[in-house]
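Regression test case RT-17, inverse folding.

Input:
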Protein backbone atom coordinates (compact mmCIF):
# COMPACT_ATOMS: atom_id res chain seq x y z
CA UNK A 1 0.00 0.00 0.00
CA UNK A 2 1.27 3.48 -0.88
CA UNK A 3 2.28 5.68 2.05
CA UNK A 4 -0.02 8.45 3.23
CA UNK A 5 1.39 11.84 2.23
CA UNK A 6 1.66 14.40 5.03
CA UNK A 7 3.23 17.82 5.49
CA UNK A 8 4.52 18.92 8.89
CA UNK A 9 6.32 21.81 10.55
CA UNK A 10 8.91 21.04 13.25
CA UNK A 11 10.47 23.37 15.80
CA UNK A 12 14.04 23.32 17.06
CA UNK A 13 13.52 25.14 20.34
CA UNK A 14 16.81 26.19 21.91
CA UNK A 15 16.99 27.53 25.46
CA UNK A 16 19.23 30.43 26.51
CA UNK A 17 21.77 27.89 27.84
CA UNK A 18 21.92 26.02 24.51
CA UNK A 19 19.71 23.03 25.26
CA UNK A 20 17.22 21.75 22.68
CA UNK A 21 13.70 20.63 23.56
CA UNK A 22 12.67 17.19 22.32
CA UNK A 23 9.45 15.26 22.89
CA UNK A 24 9.44 11.52 23.42
CA UNK A 25 6.86 9.69 21.34
CA UNK A 26 5.51 6.17 21.88
CA UNK A 27 3.88 3.85 19.37
CA UNK A 28 3.35 0.37 20.81
CA UNK A 29 6.63 -0.78 22.38
CA UNK A 30 8.75 1.69 20.35
CA UNK A 31 9.82 5.10 21.69
CA UNK A 32 11.83 7.89 20.05
CA UNK A 33 12.70 11.55 20.55
CA UNK A 34 11.87 14.29 18.04
CA UNK A 35 11.40 18.01 17.79
CA UNK A 36 7.94 19.39 18.63
CA UNK A 37 5.65 20.09 15.72
CA UNK A 38 2.77 18.73 13.73
CA UNK A 39 0.88 18.49 10.50
CA UNK A 40 -0.37 21.36 8.41
CA UNK A 41 -4.10 22.07 8.71
CA UNK A 42 -6.26 23.19 5.80
CA UNK A 43 -4.51 25.76 3.62
CA UNK A 44 -1.81 26.60 6.18
CA UNK A 45 1.71 27.36 5.05
CA UNK A 46 4.59 25.62 6.79
CA UNK A 47 5.42 28.84 8.66
CA UNK A 48 1.81 29.29 9.80
CA UNK A 49 1.76 25.69 11.03
CA UNK A 50 5.05 26.21 12.89
CA UNK A 51 3.66 29.31 14.62
CA UNK A 52 0.43 27.47 15.52
CA UNK A 53 2.34 24.47 16.86
CA UNK A 54 4.55 26.79 18.96
CA UNK A 55 1.42 28.29 20.51
CA UNK A 56 -0.47 25.00 20.93
CA UNK A 57 2.30 22.64 22.01
CA UNK A 58 4.62 25.04 23.81
CA UNK A 59 2.52 28.05 24.82
CA UNK A 60 5.05 30.23 22.96
CA UNK A 61 2.88 32.42 20.75
CA UNK A 62 4.65 35.08 18.73
CA UNK A 63 8.21 33.78 19.19
CA UNK A 64 10.41 34.52 16.14
CA UNK A 65 10.92 31.58 13.77
CA UNK A 66 13.88 31.13 11.41
CA UNK A 67 13.49 28.61 8.54
CA UNK A 68 16.19 25.92 8.59
CA UNK A 69 15.78 22.94 6.28
CA UNK A 70 13.26 20.72 4.55
CA UNK A 71 13.40 16.93 4.36
CA UNK A 72 11.20 14.01 3.38
CA UNK A 73 11.02 11.02 5.69
CA UNK A 74 9.14 7.73 5.61
CA UNK A 75 7.98 5.91 8.72
CA UNK A 76 5.24 3.73 10.14
CA UNK A 77 2.93 5.12 12.82
CA UNK A 78 -0.01 3.25 14.32
CA UNK A 79 0.30 0.68 11.56
CA UNK A 80 0.16 3.23 8.72
CA UNK A 81 2.98 3.94 6.29
CA UNK A 82 3.61 7.71 6.07
CA UNK A 83 5.73 9.83 3.74
CA UNK A 84 6.19 13.18 5.47
CA UNK A 85 7.59 16.41 4.08
CA UNK A 86 8.96 18.29 7.08
CA UNK A 87 10.18 21.86 7.35
CA UNK A 88 12.21 22.77 10.40
CA UNK A 89 12.21 26.18 12.07
CA UNK A 90 14.59 27.50 14.69
CA UNK A 91 13.15 29.14 17.79
CA UNK A 92 15.80 30.59 20.10
CA UNK A 93 14.41 31.48 23.49
CA UNK A 94 15.69 34.51 25.36
CA UNK A 95 16.24 34.76 29.10
CA UNK A 96 12.81 36.34 29.59
CA UNK A 97 10.87 33.58 27.84
CA UNK A 98 8.98 31.08 29.94
CA UNK A 99 10.32 27.69 28.89
CA UNK A 100 7.75 24.93 28.50
CA UNK A 101 7.74 22.20 31.12
CA UNK A 102 5.97 18.93 31.84
CA UNK A 103 2.53 20.61 32.11
CA UNK A 104 2.62 21.13 28.33
CA UNK A 105 2.53 17.37 27.82
CA UNK A 106 -0.88 16.79 29.36
CA UNK A 107 -2.52 18.20 26.23
CA UNK A 108 -0.60 15.83 23.94
CA UNK A 109 -0.71 12.43 25.64
CA UNK A 110 -3.37 11.32 23.13
CA UNK A 111 -0.88 11.96 20.29
CA UNK A 112 1.65 9.55 21.76
CA UNK A 113 3.87 12.16 23.44
CA UNK A 114 4.97 10.65 26.74
CA UNK A 115 7.81 12.91 27.91
CA UNK A 116 9.76 16.06 27.19
CA UNK A 117 13.39 16.81 27.87
CA UNK A 118 15.91 19.60 27.37
CA UNK A 119 19.01 18.01 25.78
CA UNK A 120 22.57 19.22 25.55
CA UNK A 121 24.17 18.72 22.14
CA UNK A 122 26.65 16.25 23.62
CA UNK A 123 23.80 14.18 25.09
CA UNK A 124 22.10 13.96 21.69
CA UNK A 125 25.34 12.85 20.07
CA UNK A 126 26.00 10.14 22.69
CA UNK A 127 22.54 8.72 23.34
CA UNK A 128 21.62 5.20 22.29
CA UNK A 129 17.94 6.17 22.15
CA UNK A 130 16.35 6.91 18.77
CA UNK A 131 16.43 10.64 17.96
CA UNK A 132 15.03 12.20 14.79
CA UNK A 133 16.26 13.52 12.55
CA UNK A 134 19.09 11.01 12.81
CA UNK A 135 21.64 13.73 12.03
CA UNK A 136 20.27 16.19 14.60
CA UNK A 137 23.61 16.47 16.41
CA UNK A 138 25.43 17.52 13.22
CA UNK A 139 22.71 20.00 12.33
CA UNK A 140 22.81 21.54 15.81
CA UNK A 141 26.61 21.88 15.64
CA UNK A 142 26.23 23.96 12.47
CA UNK A 143 23.77 26.26 14.29
CA UNK A 144 26.10 27.05 17.16
CA UNK A 145 27.20 30.71 17.32
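Golden output:
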Amino acid sequence: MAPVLRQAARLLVISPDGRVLLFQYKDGPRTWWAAPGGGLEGEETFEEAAAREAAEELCLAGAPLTPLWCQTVEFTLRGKSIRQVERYYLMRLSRGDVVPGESVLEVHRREGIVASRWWLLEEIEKTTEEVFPVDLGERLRRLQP
